[in-house]
Amino acid sequence: MRDKTMHVKVRDSYSDKIFDGINIVVMLLLLIIFVWPLWFVVIASVSNPNEVWNGNVILLPKDFTLMAYEELMKYKMIWTGYRNTIFYTVVGTFVNLVMTVCAAYPLSRKDFMPRNFFMFLFMLTMYFGGGLIPTYLVVSKVGLVNTPWAMIIPGACSIYNVIITRTYFINSIPSTLQDAAELDGANSFQYLMRVVLPLSKPIIAVIALYYAVSHWNDFYTALIYINKQEYMPLQSFLRDILMSNKMTLNDIQGLDATTTEARMRLAQTLKYSVIIVSTVPVLCIYPFIQKYFVKGVMIGSVKG
Amino acid sequence: MNTLGISVYSILAGFPIPIIFALMLNYVKNKYLKKTVQMVSYAPYFISTVVMCGMITIFMSTDSGIFNIIRGFLGMDPVDALSKPGWFKSIYVWTGVWQGMGWSSIIYISALSGVDMQLHEAAIVDGATKLQRIIHVDLPSIKPTIIMLLILQMGSLMGVGFEKVFLLQNTLNKSAASVISTYVYEVGLINSDYGYSTAVGLFNSVINVILIVTANQLSKRLADESLF
């Protein structure tokens, strides 16, 4: 009897060991799969274009040079795009936050009678939209097409975030606070500004981050509503450079490489540097805000 | 047809992988390894679609892309994968998995951390291996989460994201890379055929709603879990 249990135990821990071993190997592999492509872009952007072209750049930069970045500096459109994107991100996120709080707060109040009706209307838009063309027609009739506001107003409020915020308001702010505020003579607006919002900093931070990242990465809105170069966000220029090779030789002044071949290679390296320049702001703040994002997913999942 | 194909493929590949990833991560003993893998796996989610597609074209390029270098090592001929219609779905789906799996796994990881430790202890006393514990303890515990997310995914079955398909599309792979959303865009905004394009879009929305309601009913009946 005892022998048998011993035997079982040994066999089990043996299988567990195999499991652990495989597990660690898989995790390390995944680590490489996640990190390497990003790392490659970084090292390729600072390597000699010829080395990259020949496939010699694998783990470390070869023949370190900032040539690609210097060329990039001369490309004016990138900076226009940068400026626009920062504007859209800052103003857009602010508008988003105001709208979201204004929608979520009444919906969280139990004494707001038609709240279920409005909730239903809001939810409906999540699953059932008019589609691209009707939306476009509305936006163009309102006169927003080809203005910076087209980037901000049509997507001013995301229902998903309204729901998350509302859930937070309901679950985390005790309703006795409202009674207390009323006793002290505060009206609803004062209660919202002085009591609810200061208590809701975590959720405000989470949805602000959601909105900011989506503005930064937004490409679709600009594709549909914006035709004028001066209003285009960074992502639109990125697309031109990365996907359609539009950064032609004429656009880059002072390019003195002799052969077309060399120019093509440089253009390739430029792609890496442009990816870095556009993604670095997000990836730089990423480690600090990571925990907030995770928190946001958790709050969202509570809604059920 | 392409829309349906791409989304079914996406769900088949993209849905179980985050679950498996979360389960495996849950059993990593080394805390640093666990934290690092977790943090790094979220990172691709924040890369914009445009940059993502740029990276895909770079890595898939015939002359210096890593994809073809690896193929070369394995003794295969280089292919220009992006111009082959047959490759499009796989590229789309697997890059999507790369980008989204870490992020989608967050919700499972949080569900797994809520699994009752007593169940695990009981299983260990009974001599269950880790694999058995995953199958008999962890999976049943996170079943509600899995079903809920599956219903949500069903709702987006007909809604293959516009941006990525649009950006990866070219004249050569178009036969495989034209989905409803890009079609609506082309017919409606490029050719200005508003009426027809709106009808196509609306039809798509209706199917979506039907799908999500059906999935919800099904899971209510089969598993006693539902979203609404």
Which features does this protein show?
heterodimer; A: 304 residues; mainly alpha; MetI-like fold; 13 helices; B: 228 residues; 12 helices; 73% helix
Could you walk me through the main structural features you see in this protein, from its secondary elements to its overall organization?
The complex is a heterodimer of chains A (304) and B (228). Chain A has 13 helices and no strands. Chain A has helices spanning 2-45, 49-53, 67-73, 76-108, 115-127, 132-141, 159-172, 176-183, 188-199, 201-217, 220-225, 234-243, 260-302. Chain A starts with a helix and ends with a helix. In chain A, 31% of the residues are buried. Chain B has helices at residues 2-14, 16-26, 31-42, 49-60, 66-73, 85-113, 117-125, 130-141, 143-155, 162-168, 180-190, 194-223. Chain B contains twelve helices and no strands. In chain B, 73% of the residues lie in helices and 0% in strands.
Helix segment count of chain A?
13
Rg over CA atoms of chain A = 26 Å
What helical percentage do the residues of chain A reach?
Answer: over 70%
**What is the CATH first-level class name of chain B?**
Mainly Alpha
Please give the number of β-strands of chain B.
0
CATH class of the largest domain in chain A: Mainly Alpha
CATH topology of the largest domain in chain A: MetI-like fold
Succession of helices and strands of chain B:
HHHHHHHHHHHH
- Envelope shape of chain B: flat
In terms of per-residue confidence, which ranges of chain B show pLDDT below 50 for 5 or more consecutive residues? Answer: none
Residues in helix, % of chain B: over 70%
Fraction in beta strands of chain B: under 5%
By CATH, the architecture of chain B is named Orthogonal Bundle
Largest sheet of chain A: none
Q: How many strand segments of chain A? A: 0
What is the overall number of helices of chain B?
12
CATH superfamily of the largest domain in chain A: MetI-like
